[in-house]
Amino acid sequence: MKKIALFLLAATLSHGAALPEAAQIDSLLAADWQKQNLQPNPPASDDVIVRRLYLDIAGRIPSLDERQDFMQSTDRDKRAKLIDKLLASDGYTSHMFNFWADVLRLTDNAKGKITAEAYEEWLKKELKANTPYDEFVKKLLTTEGGAWDSGSIGFYQRDENKLDHLAYTVQVFLGTSIVCAQCHNHPFDKWSQMDYYSMAAFTYGMDTRGSGSGAEIKIPKKPQGKQVPDVLADMKPKERRQYMKEHPEEVAKMREEANKVGSASREELQQVRKALGDVMKPLRYTSVTWHEGKLPKLPDDYKYKDGQPGEAIQPRAMFGHEAKPKEGQTTIQAFADWMTDPKNPRFTTVIANRMWKHVFGLGLIEPLDEMTDSTVASNPALMDYLAQLMIDKQYSIKSFLRVLYNTDTYQRMASTQEVALGETYHFTGPTLRRMSAEQIWDSLLTLTQGNKDSEVDEENVRLHQYLGDLNMFINTMKTKGPEGIIAAAKEGMEQRKENDRKLDEMRAKIAAQKGNTNDPAAAKELARAASKLRREASNDLLVNLIGEERAEDLIRGYNPNRQNKRTTIDKKALASLPREERKQAAKAAANNIMVARASELNSPARPGHLLRTFGQSDRELIDNANDDASVPQALTMLNGPVVESLTSPLSLLSQHLDKAPSPEQKGALLYEALLSRRPTQEENTVLTEVFHDRGDKAVDDITHALITGSQFLFIQ
Q1: DUF1549 domain spans which residues (predicted)?
Q2: Cα separations in angstroms, 692 against 302, 568, 663, 706
């Protein structure tokens, strides 16, 4: 037994000499193997490692050239150098975006699409910059302002219900599920409903109600002056009645003057508010504002003795030290400091465990986000070391991952035996995992179009132009103030009144047409005309407020440009094809949906898309992706448009195959491209038979067989 331990320790130390932290992790694991009488998995070959590193760090398989460069290198440190290269790549940004989009439930299908896209872009920039994790979390918790200030406001805009959002926040960053305590004391943990509301009090002041930063531009519902003229206000009731009876016209005039804001009457104010409501619609869900001192109240059915229904609850931390604001701090800033403090009992452990699972396939603590006071890691000594390592690395996720990828343990063969629920895995190597939906998509994209990583952090110019227009509009509104807005709205007031009259007539006709099932088209036409009238009224006011040129951009609105991506067609390759093949290839290119990495597409993809078919998260729950096999997956890989793009004469893979002079070389190239290894002698025998029997169809047959097999879909 001692010999085994010494051998294991020597192996780990020799490999991890350049990174002592990696050697220490290997040593802690070796001690556990000795205790459990286990042997580590065999070392992984370069073929396995190059594919695994590209998939785990860049989120895709290596291209043929990338694989060849690594395999031909004689540098003893080529693995460590590849790790550094991939961690610095845009592929890392893309892959980690997919990871955090799942954790944070990021979706651009929400009501605030503009903010959602700004949030996506912000997240990618933070990941690329390797913002320290504690600083990253603080930015999310304390974000404020408009989407033009920071896309991070999307964090709070994700959930309209503030109490729900608090539960997700605690689950993601503290690994603790308290959602049950929102309605009653937790049935399986110590958290009470009072604990829940006390925590919610920290974030309850975040206003996300969607009026934008112009919410403070108030147009009074009614005039602010006295409703009764001064001359009448000083009279006794009997005298007032007599005066009003004797001077009706004078009293009516005095009332009209008293009922004005500036020069606006009550009727005009109603028109202004109505028109302004349409103008302000683009600003919905584009800002958050912090209100210090705003507190949640216990629900009306609160039944416990520690509080009363309707009682406002002060903020109090669930565990650890108190979260009291320092001088000059707001409550939310104090909460962010408490959350990210290295002394917080769970913050560091949760992120260290989350990253360990990201690399090795299982956490030292499972499930990741259901920690309790009695939770114990499968290897307590290792968990403690990883938490301290995260602190020592100053919460640099890249630095932390660099250590894990450089461990001798990570660079061993994967364990193929499934770890049953409740069993302990002792990490004799990483676990065998199926690619995520995004890894499958991005790997197929690499095969068809090559390395597209450089397009990941392209700035969305149109989005920023539109956000700039919104910011300009807000600043104009603030400068004009209520009086200026009313003055602008009064221009064209008569036309808007006329439009309102026409709208009322149309609404009556639409209501009548709905009962006439024989003519639904007429009802639709009326609805379109009514919508046009409403737009015209709001557009006129917008022009009066900010001028025709600036108003035009806002009226045009924002349309995301991600759907405008098109496949780049190699014209030389297209011209070299026979006529019939050229037509088919051009048609396939026009219909090609393989246009960009998964991180650049709709987030999440629409139902029916390959990404969703292979288990991409719907972003409704935290970590909601799955890797379950299904019949639609098999059909997609056999007959879907993605495979058509892959086997098209214009795909990069097809162009490489065309250059291979013999069937043997074509077969070897397919294995290198899809599996990142050369075929074995036995596989070569089978390939020879397939080429002999199937002729020109052999390449497509082999391609289909490989991409539907476990060796392609799994990370070895």
Answers
A1: 24-203
A2: 77, 34, 9, 18
